[in-house]
Amino acid sequence: MQEIAAIAAPIKIRSRRLEDRAGWLGTLFLLPAVVYILALVGVPFVIAIAFSVTDVTVGDTSLDFVGLDNFRRIMNVDTMPQFRRALQNSFLFTLVAQILILVGANILALILSQDFRGKWLARMLIMMPWATPASLGVIGWKWLLDSKFAPIDWVLVQLGLLGPDTLLGPGSHMNFLGREGLAMASVIMVQVWRLMPLAAVILLAGFSSIDQELLDQAEVDGASFWRIHFRIRLPLILPIMSIALLFSLISIFGDIVVVFGLTTGGPVYYTHVLPTWAYVLGIQAGALSQGAATALFLFPVLLAVAILVLRNARRTEVT
Amino acid sequence: MAVVETRGLKKTFGDVKAVDGVDLTIDEGELLVILGPSGCGKTTLMRMIAGLERPTEGEVSIGGRDVTELPPRARQVAMVFQSYALYPHMTVFNNIAFPLRAQGGMPKLAIKEKVGWAASILGIEQLLERKPRQLSGGERQRVALGRALVREPQVLLLDEPLSNLDAKLRASARDELQRFQRQLGITTIFVTHDQIEAMGMGDRIAIMNKGKVRQIGTPHEIYHESGDTFVATFLGSPGMNLLEEHDYLLGFRPENFLPLEVGTTQDDLRKFSLHVTRVEHLGADRLIYGELADRAQDTEIVAKLPSAITTPVEVGARYDFGVQKQHLRFFDKTTGLRTNH
């Protein structure tokens, strides 16, 4: 026994190193993420709530509690009709763009899942709008839709659709961004253009994950193309599709770039959405508290979407 | 129920000839097995009959109607895939009802009745509300079969439907499948690489290799009167022994190659002296591997002795074996085709 002890003694039992302590290590690795979320999401959120119940402005930064005054003020349709409009627009733009994106992305994904020459090029081109920085894309569209120099106007004139005695009226300019309906449609259209590629690629990945034998089986079972699409393909990629849907939902609902770049909320205030109105009110007009109150209206929707995304992420198995 | 015919059917993928000129006629109500090693083109052939693959050349007709250009849904064929391809998001009921709904215009009650009928002949009524992932392999196979039968198709195509079952289940599934097929009298094409399945189930068997049908006939015919060396060596476990002799190949099956002392008659025997190199005990049989003494080339010859034959056989020793002359087969050396000698 003694001999054994003598041999064992020189071997120094080292204390556990940091990398052996799973608990500590886990905390350490999580720390940057926690700091990031607290500093850049948590704190601003708390500040926004605090601002929304005070009378803080750019000129007077003292925080005096005013209860729900700010909410009452921004929701007053007579003195401030912009908020109601922005709220409506936020939902309308998101809903319409979302529907168009889903339909368009489905069609695109189906086309791209076929074999044809130049498929690689087509895929790359389709991804471009998404890969381009949003602000650049929007500037491009602003030019395309310009009131005087719009190339689209010129094309319409050449096609005989625009100008005196034509379908689209006597003038030779559509003035896309200067007319209420057209400006709203333009915003929706640019959102669709910007976000459809990502949705299409997500759906494409979903489609190509489906076992070919299932599709063959459906074909032998006598199903038409549409039946296969709606009864087999879509249900099978539903979890993946809902992720695509929620992503673009967040992207549109919280977006400020498209409206700001394209119309700056105009004509008048007809194309404002919640983020742009919050910015105009809170930063440009200096009413920080009212801007914060406006922005808080984004919260319930974004929260609901975030919960859905997380719930969905857990059951993305196709089969 | 219909006659299925293929005429000069070809399919090439790039440079590969997957199916290379197949002429087949499958009679009404017949169960034809297409047997071949993997990659022989049997699945491609079946997919062309189903309409999933467009032939490069040739024609397919079902019930006398040329269907070569028709999509699967216009052909009235049903198919069971190797994976069963059950729709994972649908219940068993909806899986079986799918082909009926796809036809369109069938009232709900009639669909329910039809699904009930298919489920009852397969004994899966109690599974109708389940999802495929809640089923065992055998149950999945029945559901797939039910979905195939529910439309009462003219032709039933089965692509290795038993290969995902364990050995025990496979035997009973074989028996069941054959019973349904007889009972319903559906013209059936069954693709497999398993010769036991093929021999046990087929009214006739078509043996395929490299895109071509090498021989077509009853299980008895193709086994005992194999048309060429491929069929002769592909069938049987182990396959036929082939010996080069003069200007032909001499063939005999391992189970006909027995120790002389076992034979009841010494007449009409072709005798060989076998130098035993290996013995495998397989339970029901013993496989004796060896070389023939009087030959230059070291051809390995196999004898298959049923366990009822207890003659001791030792590795390294030399024994006299013999084959009855009626069991000898002759093949052309260059073409491999059967000849008479």
Describe this structure in words.
The complex is a heterodimer of chains A (319) and B (341). Chain A has 319 residues and is an all-alpha fold. Chain A has one domain: MetI-like fold, CATH 1.10.3720. Helices cover 69% and strands 0% of the residues of chain A. Chain A contains 14 helices and no strands. In chain A, α4 (81-112) packs parallel to α8 and α4 (81-112) packs across α12. The model of chain A has no long low-confidence stretch (mean pLDDT 84). Chain B contains 8 helices and 19 strands. Chain B has 341 residues and is of the alpha+beta class. Chain B folds into 2 domains: 4-229, 3-Layer(aba) Sandwich (Rossmann fold), CATH 3.40.50; 241-339, Nucleic acid-binding proteins (OB fold (Dihydrolipoamide Acetyltransferase, E2P)). A 6-stranded mixed beta sheet of chain B has the order 6-7-8-3-9-10, with helices on both faces. A 5-stranded antiparallel beta sheet of chain B has the order 13-17-14-15-16, with no helix packed on it. In chain B, strands 2-1-4-5 form a 4-stranded antiparallel beta sheet, covered by helices on one side. The model of chain B has no long low-confidence stretch (mean pLDDT 88). Classes of the chains: A mainly alpha (319), B alpha+beta (341). The A-B interface holds A 211, 213-214, 216-224, 227, 231-232, 235-236, 318-319 and B 47, 50-52, 71-73, 77-79, 81-83, 85, 87-89, 98-99, 101-103, 133, 147, 151, 157.
